[in-house]
């Protein structure tokens, strides 16, 4: 509504408790290495897709862990699955399976499935 | 006699130094201000990184200090040291004076008084506790909220009183990160259904097996790690704590309800140590800890010849380091006494 | 909530508030938005308590709003404030009483600047002298007028005609206290009780029989934020802050909000209308909005003053529901009458009538 | 009229299975695509028919491949299959010669002894009986091995054997009972009549000496017939369906039918042709390096047959192709797995008895997709005209030494080239295909195809076998595609690259996608022999191991991959080579972390061997030779 010449700005705050983290839980249950990410960003730095567009697996996984799923839904489709991230990950996260599971969870519309 | 040594403090470093000196034939007097020896370790349940029971360490130290050459005074604090004719007069809180050829200062550390981080509401919100409070709960095997109910969501705040100019401490206490990880895992073990979160600025897991512990906490215990220092804590109408933090990895502020918040209090120069420093003219650093004569090769020596430092009175240390430091102090004392003789 | 813990914090932030002899500086916007407040304060101090409050008619705005809106440079505002100090010096006063939290913040910021950068002080002395020929001293003591009411809260309680109790139920009223950000967040030592758990308003509420509400967003800004509010296109940010704050206090069912800052009072009062219009939300009970009062107005009600003399009718959110709870008698017909009994026009779009 | 009621179960079973086989065959045939139908028709009347008969004899009866791979296991299969075949063949002849009349119904041959108990006392009859006993003994020797294998698979040289379902168990039991019951029935009858040769005769006289053989013989003839009948009746719903199916498969394959990338009748035929022999389990590195024993192709085939959810099985595979290489039936296991990966996991439907005998056609629907548009962000890149186009591939960017070596080689060759993905390229699409996302892969393929086409290049060189395979199979390019090992080989052959001999002991690891995946074995070895001393490893050519780093497997953990890599590396470096050479950036990167031996791509070794100052080369090339590309990592 623009009655007063301005509109309400939506807050940026992550409301952890009211967010839905089913997607992250689904991925974590099927690929436990999802849990051991230390946010170093190697995956994003090596990423073939990230070379051309805003795509960061590091960001995607943290958003899911916080339940900010909407920001991931479309982004996750950009991945080409080339696998460079898997090779550079210092913790040995099975990144390709993480991405496939995220895509699968969105496709299946996972909610409180785990 | 020429081999009279006073050890100030009966914690880890004091006990280890006293034991080493006694075995080398010194006549050692230990003053401990509390009624029992053992320092902070006796308030701790399990120790990182191997989850050893703290009582094992106390037993080891107890054996060390149980020596014919050692006289132990508990419940007596040392107030000052004064050099006199190549030896020292050590003044105690109960008005006595004792002469020593060398002094080992092992006054240890105090935990940061978490009340000073007002925004966390320690002492105001019932369910904000410190890492030391939590260890007591572990010992009782009862992790409970103030009203006696079992907490479902527990947060651990790293760097409380460390790396914080506003709290007066620029330095890193270096052990709080690993303590938090250890405690998070222990909570998860005690309370199966609990969700545990660590709020950290950096994960400083520099010691042996620390990083492995961190990984285990992530992988097998499902501990959540949120990078960002808690900025403020409030309470809502259901008496739940509301924690505000920036999730710096998403670049967005985050709000979370928490049942029990544990503050990982940092390490500070002890009050007793400050008093001695002032009265004896011992140098202290910008961090208020005793300032060793040299950080590289004289970390046990003070600015007064014959007065030595052992353990966490010089900087935050873990038990391993404190024991090593105490042994080095004992070696320095022996060296000094031998030279004095000749 | 452990009250003992709060008392311990308060004991760390004890502020010296002089007993008497103040040089009084007014707020720009309070005089137009809540004209009864300053009027009541001076009358109460001078007539009831017999204190010495001096006002110099040539004192001006502190230019704080301009400063925070980036239109007044720091050196300019320092010189304006220095002029007030000069006026104070010329009148022979050493204690300053400031009615506005923005001004209070400006004064503390400037004085702290001078402490840390004495060369700034010397520069300002030169500016003021060159511009006006005046000289000044830094005040010995600086109090916000809410500090002063806080200091005399027990005297007020002793003279109270109405305590902050719901007359019908006998329960204390739930009162939200809101402290202006610039009161103590920048320099906690200048505020009674510090920045995290300020005591200045909660002390008044408790002394007068009310119950203080500590809600999650208690520390949050009202949303005014100067740049945010003053530029119309930015007001969306401002409003979302206000909504966050009100949603947080709503579960506690507050009977009123007490503030000590002119901007907060204005915003939290008038924006309940905006929120109702834009988002169709009210935060009080029974579809009502929550009255927002200044501490002087509340003190006046406690002392039994006529609500219309205190100027409650000039608020956006009308106070009748609160007055009814307090059991305060009022004449609805007198609401918009001048002191000599002439009828004034009745505003439209009022809330809670 | 020689007839007894006990032959009824056998007759029912036999006629049922014959009719059933015809029905299924007709159904499969009608479901083949038109070109495949034509192929089969042409094959039936052409040389394929003869080839097929030979193959059926060699593989389905003799089990030549299994014999070669594992003699005891092969013998077991051979004795059962070939022995039974001989028993039927010679039984029929026996019935024809010695029976009351010619051209008997089959049961006469099978139960010849019952109807002719007096037969075989003397002369030729006795010799023939001896032959029949010999065949039976041959079968029984295999049967004993089979029974032992069921309980201890190590005896036949197998580490693992497949697990069974209930109908399989019943069928297995009846199969096991067929020959012992025949033995006992014949022996008892022989005992009564004093006939029979060394086996049935001897056993018969022993049994008759203390048992009422006369009364016991008849029930055992019943048991024999019932076992046969049960086995035939259950055959279509058990793994023994592979016996008739394999015949069809051999014909189809010899007629030129291949799996391709679509599911259809041929996929179904192959799926039913799997005998669950378990050789794929033994060949699988996931089995012998990481102990994962429930995802191998035999289980995939079984799962697909039974319409189970095989999603986890399908993705837990390195796609190295070793099982294809060792499968005695020659099933194209990896292509079938690729097809299955494109389908979502499915709920197994409730199955009626009818649907088990006449299952729906296996039609794996391609459902796995990102949704559209996935890659609208693909960059606008303009390619410049060139002769040789070099596409390093994503993985090569993580092994800058290979990139650097290739640039050095390309520079030294003096050819006009462009580095297509110098600033990072778009993925070739194969990783997406391996994940079952063909639609998305097609977007990348189209994009890259455009770039390659625009360059007008004559030769496309890639360093990555993953890219090479997809370029070869799924791109439609008018360019000569070369893996860099082929390219280097060409340069050497054309004398465009002068190399020193390095006197180093090297072993070559053939990358899966280059070797088994694309059939390139010789060029890499030729190049290596040209510059170094190449030694055999015991895992050469199509026996090559997978490095474990495969993008094909999304299920195993990093540590499991590492274990596979470590095992493979230690097997390859047993002879203490100086260099473990490979031709794949992913293999190189995977091996580097697990072995102390130097791991190098062939390109690196070749770059090292480039003669320092070759006088023959043109001047501008010499100048360019030591040019270091500015943006090398």
Residues in β-strands, percent of chain A? under 5%
How large is the radius of gyration of chain A? 16 Å
**How do the SSEs of chain B run, as a string of H and E?**
EHEEEHEEEEEEEHEHEHEEEEEEHEH
Number of domains of chain A: 1
Using the 3D structure, state the CATH architecture of the largest domain in chain B.
3-Layer(bba) Sandwich
Label the structural class of chain A: mainly alpha
Main sheet of chain A? none
What is the typical, i.e. mean, pLDDT of chain B? 95
Helix content of chain A: 40-55%
The greatest interface between two protein chains, and residues involved on each side, is:
A-D, 26 and 33 residues
Sheet-strand content of chain B, in percent, reads: 25-35%
Alpha-carbon distance between the termini of chain B?
14 Å
Main structural class of chain B:
alpha/beta
Rg of chain B, Cα atoms, Å: 21 Å
Numbering strands along the chain, what is their spatial order in the largest sheet of chain B? 5-2-1-9-20
Task: Write up this protein.
The complex is a heterotetramer of chains A (114), B (342), C (353) and D (633). Chain A is mainly α and 114 residues long. Helix content of chain A is 40%, strand content 2%. Chain A has one domain (20-108): Fumarate Reductase Iron-sulfur Protein, Chain B, domain 2 (Orthogonal Bundle). In chain A, helix 1 crosses helix 6. The radius of gyration of chain A is 16 Å and the shape is globular. The mean pLDDT of chain A is 91. Chain B has 342 residues and is α/β, with parallel strands linked by helices. Chain B folds into two domains: 4-108 and 270-341, FAD/NAD(P)-binding domain (3-Layer(bba) Sandwich), CATH 3.50.50.60; 114-266, FAD/NAD(P)-binding domain, CATH 3.50.50. Helices cover 27% and strands 28% of the residues of chain B. Chain B contains seven helices and 20 strands. In chain B, strand 7 (87-92) and strand 8 (97-100) form a beta hairpin. The longest helix of chain B is centred in the last third of the chain and has 23 residues, at 319-341. By secondary structure, chain C is an alpha/beta fold. Chain C is built from 17 helices and eight strands. In chain C, strands 2-1-3-4 form a four-stranded parallel beta sheet. In chain C, helix 3 packs across helix 15, helix 5 (74-91) crosses helix 7 and helix 8 runs parallel beside helix 11 (200-207). The mean pLDDT of chain C is 94. With 633 residues, chain D is mainly alpha-helical. Chain D has four domains: 5-239, no CATH class; 258-357, Orthogonal Bundle (Fumarate Reductase Iron-sulfur Protein, Chain B, domain 2); 388-494, Rossmann fold, CATH 3.40.50; 505-609, 3-Layer(aba) Sandwich (Rossmann fold). In chain D, the strands form two sheets. A four-stranded parallel beta sheet of chain D has the order 2-1-3-4. The chains are: A mainly alpha (114), B alpha/beta (342), C alpha/beta (353), D mainly alpha (633). Chains in contact: A-B, A-C, A-D, B-C. The interface between A and D is medium-sized, with 26 and 33 residues.
């Amino acid at each position: 509504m623009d009655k007063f010449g301005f509109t309400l700005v939506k807050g940026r705050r992550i409301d952890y408790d009211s967010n839905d983290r089913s997607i992250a839980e689904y991925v974590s249950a099927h690929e436990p290495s999802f849990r051991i990410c230390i946010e170093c960003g190697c995956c994003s730095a090596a990423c073939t897709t990230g070379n051309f567009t805003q795509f960061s697996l590091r960001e995607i996984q943290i958003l899911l862990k916080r339940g900010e799923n909407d920001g991931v839904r479309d982004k996750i489709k950009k991945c080409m699955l080339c696998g460079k991230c898997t090779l550079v990950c210092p913790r040995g996260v099975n990144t390709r399976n993480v991405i496939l599971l995220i895509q699968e969870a969105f496709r299946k519309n996972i909610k409180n499935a785990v | 006699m020429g081999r009279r040594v006073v050890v100030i403090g009966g914690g880890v470093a004091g006990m280890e130094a006293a034991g080493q000196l006694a075995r080398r034939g010194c006549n050692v007097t230990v003053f401990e201000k509390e009624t029992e020896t053992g320092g902070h370790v006796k308030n701790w349940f399990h120790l990182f990184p191997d989850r050893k029971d703290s009582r094992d360490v106390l037993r080891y130290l107890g054996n060390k200090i149980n020596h014919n050459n050692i006289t132990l005074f508990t419940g007596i604090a040392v107030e000052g040291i004064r050099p006199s004719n190549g030896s020292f007069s050590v003044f105690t809180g109960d008005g006595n004076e004792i002469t020593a050829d060398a002094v080992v200062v092992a006054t240890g550390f105090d935990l940061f008084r978490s009340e000073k981080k007002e925004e966390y509401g320690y002492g105001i919100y019932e369910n904000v506790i410190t890492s030391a409070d939590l260890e007591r709960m572990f010992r009782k095997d009862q992790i409970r909220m103030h009203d006696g109910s079992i907490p479902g969501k527990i947060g651990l705040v790293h760097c409380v009183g460390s790396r914080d100019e506003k709290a007066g401490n620029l330095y890193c206490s270096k052990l709080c990160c690993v303590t938090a990880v250890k405690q998070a895992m222990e909570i998860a073990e005690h309370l199966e259904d609990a969700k545990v979160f660590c709020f950290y600025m950096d994960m400083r897991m520099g010691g042996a097996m620390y990083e492995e512990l961190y990984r285990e906490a992530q992988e097998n215990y499902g501990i959540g790690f949120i990078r960002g220092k808690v900025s403020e804590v409030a309470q809502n109408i259901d008496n739940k704590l509301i924690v505000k933090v920036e999730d710096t990895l998403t670049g967005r502020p985050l709000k979370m309800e928490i049942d029990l918040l544990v503050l990982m209090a940092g390490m500070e120069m002890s009050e007793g140590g400050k008093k001695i420093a002032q009265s004896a003219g011992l140098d202290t650093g910008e961090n208020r800890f005793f300032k060793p004569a040299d950080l590289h090769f004289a970390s046990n020596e003070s600015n007064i010849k014959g007065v030595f430092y052992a353990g966490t009175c010089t900087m935050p240390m873990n038990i391993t380091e404190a024991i090593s430091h105490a042994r080095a102090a004992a070696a320095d004392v022996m060296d000094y006494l031998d030279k004095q003789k000749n | 909530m452990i009250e003992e813990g709060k008392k311990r914090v308060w004991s760390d932030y004890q502020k010296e508030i002089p007993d008497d002899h103040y040089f009084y500086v007014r707020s720009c916007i309070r005089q137009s938005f809540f004209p009864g407040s300053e009027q009541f304060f001076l009358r109460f101090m001078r007539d009831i308590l017999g204190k010495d409050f001096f006002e110099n008619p040539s004192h001006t705005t502190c230019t704080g709003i301009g400063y925070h809106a980036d239109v007044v440079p720091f050196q300019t505002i320092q010189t304006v404030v220095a002029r007030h100090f000069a006026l104070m010096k010329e009148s022979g006063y050493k204690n300053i009483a400031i009615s506005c939290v923005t001004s209070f913040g400006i004064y503390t910021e400037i004085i702290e600047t001078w402490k840390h950068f004495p060369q700034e002080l010397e520069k300002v002395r030169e500016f003021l002298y060159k511009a006006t020929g005046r000289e000044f001293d830094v005040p010995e003591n600086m109090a916000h007028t809410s500090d002063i009411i806080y200091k005399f809260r027990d005297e007020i309680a002793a003279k109270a005609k109405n305590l902050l109790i719901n007359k019908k139920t006998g329960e204390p009223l739930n009162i939200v206290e809101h402290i202006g950000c610039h009161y103590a967040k920048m320099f906690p030592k200048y505020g009674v009780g510090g920045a995290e758990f300020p005591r200045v308003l909660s002390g008044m509420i408790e002394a007068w029989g009310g119950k203080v509400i500590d809600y999650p967003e208690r520390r949050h800004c009202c949303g005014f934020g100067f740049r945010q509010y003053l530029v119309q296109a930015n007001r969306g940010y401002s409003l979302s802050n206000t909504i966050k704050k009100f949603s947080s206090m709503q579960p506690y069912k507050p009977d009123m909000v007490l503030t000590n800052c002119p901007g907060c009072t204005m915003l939290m009062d008038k924006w309940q209308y905006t929120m109702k219009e834009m988002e169709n939300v009210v935060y009080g009970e029974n579809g009502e909005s929550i009255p927002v009062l200044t501490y002087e107005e509340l003190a006046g009600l406690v002392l039994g003053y006529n609500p219309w003399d205190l100027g409650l009718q000039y608020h956006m959110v009308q106070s009748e529901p609160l007055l009814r709870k307090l059991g305060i008698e009022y004449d609805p017909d007198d609401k918009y009458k001048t002191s000599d009994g002439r009828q004034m026009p009745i505003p439209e779009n009022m809330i809670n009538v | 009229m020689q007839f007894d009621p006990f032959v009824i179960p056998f007759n029912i079973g036999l006629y049922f299975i014959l009719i059933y086989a015809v029905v299924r065959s007709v159904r499969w045939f009608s479901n083949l695509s038109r070109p495949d139908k034509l192929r089969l028709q042409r094959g039936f009347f052409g040389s394929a028919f003869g080839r097929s008969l030979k193959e059926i004899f060699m593989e389905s009866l003799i089990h030549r491949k299994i014999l070669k791979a594992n003699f005891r296991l092969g013998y077991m299969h051979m004795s059962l299959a070939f022995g039974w075949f001989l028993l039927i063949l010679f039984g029929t002849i026996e019935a024809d010669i010695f029976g009351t009349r010619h051209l008997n119904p089959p049961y006469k041959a099978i139960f010849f002894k019952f109807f002719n108990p007096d037969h075989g006392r003397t002369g030729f009859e006795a010799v023939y009986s001896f032959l029949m006993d010999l065949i039976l003994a041959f079968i029984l020797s295999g049967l004993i091995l089979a029974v032992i294998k069921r309980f201890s698979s190590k005896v036949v040289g197998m580490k693992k054997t497949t697990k069974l379902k209930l109908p399989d168990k019943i069928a297995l039991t009846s199969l096991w009972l067929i020959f012992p019951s025949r033995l006992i029935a014949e022996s008892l009858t022989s005992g009564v009549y004093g006939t029979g040769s060394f086996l049935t005769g001897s056993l018969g006289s022993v049994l008759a000496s203390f048992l009422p053989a006369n009364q016991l013989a008849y029930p055992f003839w019943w048991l024999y017939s019932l076992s046969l009948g049960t086995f035939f009746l259950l055959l279509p719903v058990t793994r023994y369906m592979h016996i008739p199916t394999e015949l069809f498969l051999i014909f189809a394959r010899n007629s030129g039918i291949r799996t391709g990338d679509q599911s259809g009748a041929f996929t179904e035929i192959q799926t039913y042709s799997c005998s669950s022999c378990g050789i794929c389990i033994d060949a699988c590195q996931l089995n012998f390096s990481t102990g994962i024993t429930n995802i191998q192709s035999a289980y995939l085939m079984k799962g697909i047959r039974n319409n189970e959810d095989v999603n986890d099985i399908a993705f837990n595979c390195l796609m190295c192709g070793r099982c294809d290489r060792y499968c005695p039936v020659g099933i194209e296991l990896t292509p079938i797995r690729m097809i299955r990966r494109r389908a979502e996991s499915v709920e197994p439907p409730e199955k009626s008895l009818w649907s088990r005998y006449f299952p729906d056609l296996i039609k794996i629907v391609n459902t796995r997709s990102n949704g559209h548009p996935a890659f609208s962000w693909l960059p606008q890149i303009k390619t410049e005209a060139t002769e040789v186009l070099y596409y390093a591939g994503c993985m090569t960017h993580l092994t800058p030494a290979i990139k650097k070596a290739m640039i050095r080689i390309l520079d030294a060759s003096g050819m006009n080239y462009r580095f297509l993905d110098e600033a990072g390229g778009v993925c070739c699409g194969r990783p997406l295909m391996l994940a079952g996302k063909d639609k998305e892969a097609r977007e990348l393929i189209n994009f890259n195809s455009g770039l390659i086409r625009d360059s007008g290049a004559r030769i496309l060189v890639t360093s990555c076998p993953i890219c090479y395979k997809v370029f070869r199979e799924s791109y439609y390019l008018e360019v000569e595609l070369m893996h860099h090992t082929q390219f280097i080989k060409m340069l050497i052959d054309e004398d465009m690259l002068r190399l020193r001999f390095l006197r180093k002991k090297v072993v070559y690891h053939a990358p899966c996608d280059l070797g088994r995946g694309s059939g390139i074995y010789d060029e890499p070895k030729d190049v290596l022999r040209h510059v170094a001393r190449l030694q055999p490893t015991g895992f050469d050519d199509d026996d090559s191991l997978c490095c474990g780093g495969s993008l094909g497997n999304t299920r195993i953990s990093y540590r499991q991959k590492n274990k596979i890599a470590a095992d493979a590396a230690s097997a390859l470096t047993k002879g203490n080579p100086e260099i473990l050479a490979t031709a794949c950036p992913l293999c190189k990167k995977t091996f580097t972390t697990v072995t102390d031996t130097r791991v190098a791509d062939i390109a690196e070794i070749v770059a090292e061997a480039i003669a320092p100052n070759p006088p023959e080369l043109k001047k501008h090339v010499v100048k360019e030779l030591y040019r270091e590309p500015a943006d090398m990592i």
